[in-house]
Amino acid sequence: MLRHLNVFLHFIKYCWMGEMEFRFNFFIWIVVNIIWGVTNLVFVNIVYSQVQSIAGWNKPEALILGVVYILFVSLMWVVILPNVGKFHDLIRKGEFDFYLLKPINLRFLVSTKVVEFDQLPKIILLPFILNFFLRSAGYSPNIFQIGQFILLICLGLFIFYSFFFIIMISNFWLINTFNLENLFDSLIDIGKFPTQIFSGLLRILFVYIAPVAYIATFPTLALIGKSSISSIIIATLIAISMFIISQLFWNFALRRYSSASS
Amino acid sequence: MRKYIILTRLAIQNALAYRGPMVVWLLCNILALVTMIAVWNSATATGLIAGYTKNELTSYYVASLFLQWLTGWYPFYWIRTEIRDGSVANMLTKPMSFYWRVFAGESGWHIVSTPIGVLTSVIVALFIPNHLVFSFGLNFWIAILASLLSIFVVFTTSLCMGLLAFWLTNLNTLDSTFWAAKIFLGGQGIPISFLPLPLLYVVKLLPFRYMFSFPLEVYFNKLSSGEIMFGFGIQILWIVLLTLLYKVLWTKGRRAYTSFGN
């Protein structure tokens, strides 16, 4: 465990050195990311200038949801998405062969090698913005609700890591499918809307199978005191199931891997 | 002309070889479509929403699915790659126009994907026939004409963006900004009638509206005859300006270009 932590700290160090090689680009990305975040909130404002509510969510609640969504996506972009999104390149170019030779857990290596820092300023700013929107809407969450919120965000990140990992593994067979990253973006995009917009089978799909409800809806409900403990229990069960499935699928895929090139 | 037909034929074969990415993009579009339909169906509003009825908004997104495949001519990534890896040098010695060679290369993908877009729109429409307001009168044909011109606005813009790789090493931020503008100012995310008035006046002069929104505004009968004429005038003006910009960038880029290896 300590050895893995040590390796991860080295990844952080090397990625930071890489970022600092292109400082101007790094700072431009910080600005672009902040603009994207602001654009999302402007989008909410524009939509609510024409409607009173969406699936029972009024404008102040939708703005809180929007900030939680931006926070979740920013966290995803630090380690999870940069790694799972680029996995197809490792397979296509044959670079995965070199990973196989390393004396460390392979899943850990492909999941943590790339760390991105351009979201960090936004991640630091967002809790203050979230606090502002919560106060403006008349909510003041207690310690228990904040704890529930943090736990749901962490479970959500773990669920999506495992879920995207399962999709990513398909690159072992679909070598030409270079755009799975777009699918990740599309799935995450759904999370910016409350899951209550869906009904019937779609609701089941987006709560339990492709659980976008854990991106922003459930954590926001926890913050505004409308969540129940059952959402945490369900999230924990989904997180454990997803991880087990992803590990079994990973082992299955590794046994069938044959190098693409190199 | 014959050489471009052969290039188109090769591009079609290439597109058929990359069926996986096409399925992924289709899935992304369907996810976005289902979400937006759910959003507007669960919205509470009095009267029209930004000038659209709920059924018109649903139809807007179904038509968008088809329009994205028809007009999304975006050769930016492969031009950037060709300039970066030096393979553009092959083009410098060939007796053909770079513009039309790229156009032919891009056409293969759209010849294959547009019928898939139509088919998907039809299948989606079959599920929600009572929520759609499609008609195939004069407006439909004018919208088709506007869509064909949109292809040239998107294509030439992305061509110019790709050519900037002659001078700039990192164009990711430009790419990201382009998509943000197309989604929020071009009508791909929400109809531009949602935008506040002062901004809407500016948007009507920018190229993004003529990449996506304009054909849909025509189709859903949101414009007077005078506004349609004005729209076509601006659309053609952008095509001319962007083509001139392309010529300048291509001429100056070739002079600035230095190739290593190959």
Could you please describe the fold and organization of this structure?
The complex is a heterodimer of chains A (262) and B (262). Chain A has 262 residues and is mostly helical. In chain A, 71% of the residues lie in helices and 1% in strands. Chain A contains 13 helices and 1 strand, in the order ααβααααααααααα. In chain A, helix 3 (59-76) packs antiparallel against helix 8, helix 9 (143-169) packs antiparallel against helix 12 and helix 9 (143-169) runs parallel beside helix 13 (229-255). The model of chain A has no long low-confidence stretch (mean pLDDT 90). Chain B has 262 residues and is mainly alpha-helical. Chain B is 71% helix and 1% strand. Chain B contains 11 helices and 1 strand, in the order ααβααααααααα. Chain B has helices spanning 2-17, 19-41, 54-71, 76-85, 89-92, 98-127, 138-163, 172-184, 197-203, 213-219, 225-256; one strand at 43-44. In chain B, helix 2 runs antiparallel to helix 3 (54-71), helix 3 (54-71) packs antiparallel against helix 6 (98-127) and helix 4 packs parallel to helix 7 (138-163). The longest helix of chain B is centred in the last third of the chain and has 32 residues, at 225-256. Chain B is globular and about 65 Å long. Chain B starts with a helix and ends in a 6-residue tail after the last helix.
